[in-house]
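Complex record, two chains
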Amino acid sequence: MKFRTFLRHMREGVKNIARNGWMSFASVSSIFISLFILGVFVLLSLNVSNFASQVESQVQIRVFLQLNVDKATVDRLNNDIGNMADVKTVTFVSKDEGLELLRKNLGEDGDYLLEGFDKTNNPLPDSFTVEVFEPKTIADVAKQIKAINNADGAKPIMNVKYGQGTVEKLFKVTDVVRTIGLVLVIGLSVTAMFLISNTIKMTIIHRRREIGIMKLVGATNAFIRWPFFVEGALIGFGSSLLTAIVLLFGYSKLIESTQFDLGLAMIKLVPFDDVAFLLTAALVGLGTLLGVWGSTISVRKYLKV
Amino acid sequence: MIEMQDIWKTYADGTHALRGVSVRIDRNDFVYLVGPSGAGKSTFMKLIYREEVPTKGQISVNGFNIGKLKPRKIPYVRRNIGVIFQDFRLLPKMSVYENIAFAMEVIEAPKKLIRKRTMEVIELVGLKGKHNSLPSQLSGGEQQRVAIARAIINNPSVIVADEPTGNLDPETSWGIMNLLEEINFRGATIIMATHNREIVNSLRKRVIAIESGAIVRDEVRGEYGYEI
């Protein structure tokens, strides 16, 4: 192909968008609507998954020590637990701090229930609060901590607790939530692909007569296909970019209103910067691909004249 | 030059469109193709520009064996054959200029040459000043002139016209015939299927009559010969 012909195809591709105004509008709308809905669900499921992670990351292990454990043993246990690969932090909570914490957690009931207890007759044991990197390893880590205890003849640890049973249920729920999100996004992607490629097909069926005429005048298949390719790519790229811009603008407004105006600071949305690039790239990539794919496939069908 | 040897054409639905046609059309001939509707005239022409391939027999156009042509080569053969239809077959969203220039863009001619030649041809077919109009803004006769301009712009050696005056009033039809004669005069072979008795009988040329898929008459300066 000569360079001037390449330029001609570019020009024709752009002109065709204008020449087939309503059809182009139909394609753009179909891409915009499909990708917009898809984008909303991607953001939704990203945030739900993010929220699930936040909940998961709050699970922790409490390690209660025997009442008679000395300072040296405490330091050794602190080191041993801290050295485990999966452990993020180990915090020592002395019995006095424990009592304070309990008072705070119980609130008004605490005043009544814990009446008479102070530093001199504190019934609570010393303890560690252990946080892990990966919430799902929590049961393993708890086991390892118990193993340290069993290896030690003095058995300095009284109890290891991490909400056995409850934590497993929580993980199940968050897993289901994530899976539902993924299935929805995949299902919507497929639907969007069908919708978009069908609309593009319709607009090209409309032009099959033109393709036949071009062939009779002696145009090669490539010559006919190129402008359609350019047209499909431009429509796909333009409308998906528009979708991404509208979607992200809306998302930034949503973050603004929830985090600042409404003061819903406890619901941490996935930060704008974390999604902006990825979402734009995914939507624009998918849109351009569908534009090209839809038009190329459909044109091929009518080239056999 | 076009040569057919014992051409048979049977369509998928079992219709026998042509039954053993043999004919030779020389360079610069002007041929009328006459006969009742459904006799095989359109199939005869479609074989020439390779819209159809023969079921049996050999056909050569400008030295190309049409029946054995590789799909990749078809466009290059068609560029040397100008085709004109009863229903014009213009690209509806392109202007007169763009429709005609398209045939030259296809052969990757330089833009300046396309511009010069297109304007020339537009003038030749009598559409000066209409180059920016869309086909839908033109009359039938004008649209047919655009189709003719597109067919002749690359100076093809063969022009195939399937009832080019079929949709036009008598006066406009004569205008189109003058144009075809002019093109023939400049050296192109013309094959024209027609039902127009008056034109065939007044503008005497070679007449090939087809009935039920076979050539029943071939006269150098023939008459229409049907009473309709």
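Note: Chain A has two domains: 3-55+169-302, 60-162.
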